[in-house]
Amino acid sequence: MNNPVKTLVVGSRFGQFYAAGVAAAGHLELVGVLGQGSRRSQALARRLEVPCFDALEQVPDDTRLACVAVGGAARGEQGPALAQALMARGLDVLIEHPLLPQEWHELLRSATRLQRRCLLNSFYPQLPWVARFIELGRQLQRQQGIRHIEAHCAVQVSYATLEVLAAVLEAVGPWSLEPLAPALSPWREIGLAMAEVPVALRVINELAAADDGRMQSLLRISLATDSGTLLLASPHGPLLWMPAVRAPREDADGLFDLGGDALPCAEVLLDACPDWATVYREAWPTAAAAALQPLIDGAGLARLQQRSLEVVGLWQQVTAALGFPQAPPQALPSASLAQALEARR
Q: What is the reported pTM?
């Protein structure tokens, strides 16, 4: 049996999911958490019973992989500089999205020069619901073609949403972007084409200054074909197939055959994850660990790198068209429907 791959996690906010995933994966070994010595970094290391490093020089020399869960310039953070330094130390690096095109180009050039592997991770394609959606979407595109795509997302996951669309279409370009209508609300609608497929993209352009994890929703995507619509209601399901609507068959007298067609109104292909606790405890850590596989074996890495180069260019144009996000209003907490109906304004 091969020895577990020694892996470092950098960052302790979203990095918590990477650390949990690496610690639970049998083929990986979490060597520690690299942070700035914050209380949160120390607490995360204690929880997982690993060292907390506050300097790169403290990282063990036999560490092979690093998960950099620290943003780039778009979030006012230094993730790319950390990734550069880690590759210079001989580590292969996964870095969380999003990055600006120049940042990603520079990281790939450094990876080539240093003979290291580097991957920009959009995270959600590793979730089983999204992975199955991509697989089925590709089959539909190849067999009958996708006529239209509707995508809805928070601005925080706009890069990841475009990455999912590119994975389904197995291409980004040729792409085009239509001018936006004047903003009437934070829900901004953008018309674009990717790989010559029309896309209606609705982005919730809101961002809380101190909480980028506050969102109305993550992402929802539907693929329309002549036979029906494939709907990913959220990254955590459900995944549905809804056959196209056709009038009932007619008998010899022209009357509808009300005996009914056995075709279902909707097929549930994958049920939704039962609750957010399961998402945070199981689904996200598992997805985070799975994202490291191309760094370990190199399978498909060049293709993923090229696609992300194209997606970051499109993403930059989309976010430029959207403009600066609005601050969300003070609102009631996330709630079940029963709780929401009982809440008072």
A: 0.94
